[in-house]
Structures are given as C-alpha cells and as structure tokens.
UniProtKB/TrEMBL annotation:
Keywords, alphabetical: Isomerase
Organism: Mycobacterium parmense
Keyword field contains Cell inner membrane: no
Ranges of biased composition (kind: Polar residues): 29-38
Ranges where the record places region Disordered: 1-38
Protein name: Mannose-6-phosphate isomerase
InterPro entries membership: Cupin_2, RmlC-like_jellyroll, RmlC_Cupin_sf
Superkingdom of origin: Bacteria
GO MF entries: isomerase activity
Pfam families tied to this protein: Cupin_2 (PF07883)
Phylogenetic placement of the source organism: Bacteria, Bacillati, Actinomycetota, Actinomycetes, Mycobacteriales
Length: 151
C-alpha cells in the first residue's frame, strides 16, 4: 500500500525491487553490515549496487571501536573519500621510506587512492571513531593484506 510523504503520494516507502527510475531513501536503521570487513572495523553499506542500483559509487560508514586497528588492506581500483563524523581516527600508510600516520578530527576529509595499502586505527581508549565513506565503485572492495608496503 502506498503511503504519502507529502510530495509523492504514489510512491511506497520501501520499494520491493531496486530500480533506477526513482530517488532512493535509505534510513539510518536500514544500513547493512553485509559488506566486506576488516578486523578492528565495522563497515556498513548505505548506498550500493545492491541497495539502490548504484553503478559508479558506494557509500556507507565505518566504526572503529576504542583502541582498535584494522587489518592492513586496500580498496582495489576504488578511490575512497572519507569524512570524519566523530572521534580521531588515524590513517596509516607507507610512503616508500617509512610508515606515515595521519590523525584526523571531526569535520576532516581524507582521500585514499586506488590500490594504496593502509590501515585505520583508533587509539582513543573510550570513544568510537565514526567516518562516512564514499567509493568510486558500486560495492565496497576490501583486500586484506599481511603487511603495509609502498607502491
């Protein structure tokens, strides 16, 4: 049964199939943990090929528990854009000489190029770090690695 949102009285709140002829609304309560994971992080998909029929973008969020670190990993051919919503996550990569650590704060943005090995850490003993992520692919690509290495 269709319910009115005040503007689109003929649209259902939850369509039964993913189509590309409508605007999709994914509520916070509808994000999915059925996505690629790394130790130390919880990733949640919001906008993806599966959820909304996206073909060129994936968007979701990641939560890093206090005193946690992800596995070393990269995101394949995807460019990754990150917006820090809360906490002070650290992003670690190898620049060819040594490990580099970037400490981010709420409101900061971070860009991770395709195939770049890195890891996320949350050294805070009490606060979960939360970030919003957008990737240039329709699904979350995560390739876990045994160690960081320079490109």
């Amino acid at each position: 049964m269709a319910t009115s949102d005040g503007f689109h009285p003929d649209l259902d709140d939850a369509p039964t199939e993913v189509t590309r002829d409508r605007v999709h609304h994914v509520k916070a309560s509808q994000i999915s943990s059925d996505t690629a994971q790394s130790e130390g992080l919880r990733r949640f998909a919001a906008l993806s090929g599966r959820s909304v029929g996206a073909e060129k973008i994936w968007m979701g969020e990641t939560h890093a528990l206090p005193r946690s670190a992800s596995d070393n990993h990269h995101h394949g051919e995807s460019e990754t854009a990150i917006y820090v919503r809360s906490g002070n996550p650290e992003f670690v990569f190898h620049d060819g000489v040594q490990e580099v650590r970037i400490t981010a704060a709420p409101g900061d943005y971070v860009f991770i190029p395709p195939f770049l090995p890195h890891r996320e850490e949350n050294p805070d003993p009490d606060t979960t770090a939360e970030v919003v992520i957008a990737r240039s692919s329709q699904e979350a690509i995560v390739v876990n690695l045994p160690e960081l290495y320079p490109l």
